[in-house]
Amino acid sequence: MGGDAVPFPGRRALVTIIELPFSISPIVAGLCYLLVYGSTGLVGGFLDQWNIQLMFNLTGIVLVSLFVTCPFVARELIPLMEISGRDQEEAALTLGANGWQTFFYVTLPNIRWALLYGAILANARVIGEFGAVSVVSGNIRGETMTLPLQVQLLYDDYNVAGAFAAATILAVIAVITLILRAVIESRHPNVH
Amino acid sequence: MGLEIENVSKSYGSNLVLDAVDLDVQPGEFVALLGPSGSGKTTLLRIIAGLQFAEGGRLVMEGEDITGLEARLRRFGMVFQSYALFEHMSVADNTAFGLKMRPRGSRPSRSGIGERVKTLLDMAEIGHLAERYPSQLSGGQRQRVALARALAIEPRLLLLDEPFSALDTKIRKGLRSALRDLQRKVGISAILVTHDQEEAFEIADRIAVMSEGRIEQFGTAEELLRTPASPFVAEFLEGMANYENQGAGI
């Protein structure tokens, strides 16, 4: 009995929400963010009164990227934590550790490779992300551009050479990510 | 004094796993909770440890009501069935964990912790393994580390959840007497959960036979064999009596 993940009400719903980005188009996600956090949106309208703007800047890009990539990290961590159970956490508690100590000294070290692996996958995904980012970035030249957006911009400007150069950089980053992933997989085969 | 358990009940949904359990453990005494799987013995141990909480009843330790006290504040050392060693820490770091987690005021100095760890590992006869990691140890060695780690916090009570079930029968016997000796040397009360009668009879001063969330009988091995309180106890111990008789015959 000690080995199960803690079942709590709404666990299924939470897991579904975490994995939602897998099943909806990133553009839809971007539009949803615009709807909620844009200056006419529910949260955005409220924040606008305090002169806080979340969309069409770096914050917006980061927020929407988090949404798109968090399932990659969750998919790595949840199964690992379910398998390893909570014996070690319980042992830490009986030895006098509080919640934070247990997390930092026991839980985190045990999931560190899976966390890194998830981060690398998320990174690969987020570097190439186009749809969601293009909606919330506002395409402000020199300010809210990401590499994929830049590729499109250059291509639309008939700067084919520039577009391919930027695309090559993206491809190189992707290859580096794959190599990193392979290295971690070979050193820690039990990570995923 | 010691630990007193009064009227403790616990249910999972509509399933009553502990039904008004009473138990007392005297200072320095070794008590075994013996019963088939599903009898509620592990749940009782986890409630004593503070990892689960009873719906009714009281737990009193040395006169202090600990019914709602968090596990980390109880200072009960626990050895888990899986040993639950911290895989990313060396044997020495595993053992030092409880001392290192103490608030600054009551934490021993670095050298003090080091000395205490060394003493404990020597006492558990694993001093030479201090720098190893759990994955490099045998089952018996892992169990000794778990025991040393639990004793490091100077616990008021030692809780053992089936500590021999992961070991093969050959080394069990040696470890049983080692555990018993260590417990006597430290002078600490201990509660052992087991489904193995032979183990309970060999180690414990008194044995609580459990079935379906109740304690059927609580007494010394001799009392249980001579005057079983219920047909369940008699039947459950029958195999044991045969074993004893065989032993006497040889």
Helix and strand arrangement:
The complex is a heterodimer of chains A (192) and B (250).
Chain A: H1 11-23, H2 26-37, H3 42-48, H4 58-84, H5 87-94, H6 99-127, H7 131-137, H8 147-156, H9 160-187
Helix pairs in contact in A: 1-4, 2-4, 2-7, 4-6, 4-7, 5-6, 6-9, 8-9
Chain B: E1 3-12, E2 15-25, E3 30-34, H1 41-49, E4 56-61, E5 64-65, H2 71-74, E6 76-79, H3 91-100, H4 110-123, H5 139-152, E7 157-161, H6 169-186, E8 189-194, H7 197-203, E9 206-211, E10 214-219, H8 221-226, H9 231-249
Parallel strand pairs in B: 3-8, 3-9, 6-7, 7-8
Antiparallel strand pairs in B: 1-2, 1-4, 4-5, 9-10
Helix pairs in contact in B: 3-4, 3-5, 4-5
Quaternary = heterodimer
Q: Which runs of chain B of at least 5 residues are low in confidence (pLDDT < 50)?
A: none
Shape of chain B: globular
Helical run tally of chain A: 9
Distance between the termini of chain A: 23 Å
Strand content of chain A: under 5%
Structural class label of chain A: mainly alpha
Structural class of chain B: alpha/beta
Overall pLDDT score of chain A: 86
Assigned CATH architecture of the largest domain in chain B:
3-Layer(aba) Sandwich
Rg over alpha carbons of chain B: 19 Å
CATH class of the largest domain in chain B: Alpha Beta
- The count of strands of chain A amounts to 0
For the biggest sheet of chain B, the summary is:
6 strands, mixed
End-to-end Cα distance of chain B: 42 Å
Give the % helix of chain B.
40-55%
The CATH H-level homologous superfamily of the largest domain in chain B: P-loop containing nucleotide triphosphate hydrolases
Largest interface: A-B, 19 and 31 residues
Q: Please give the count of helices of chain B.
A: 9
Q: CATH topology of chain A, anyone?
A: MetI-like fold
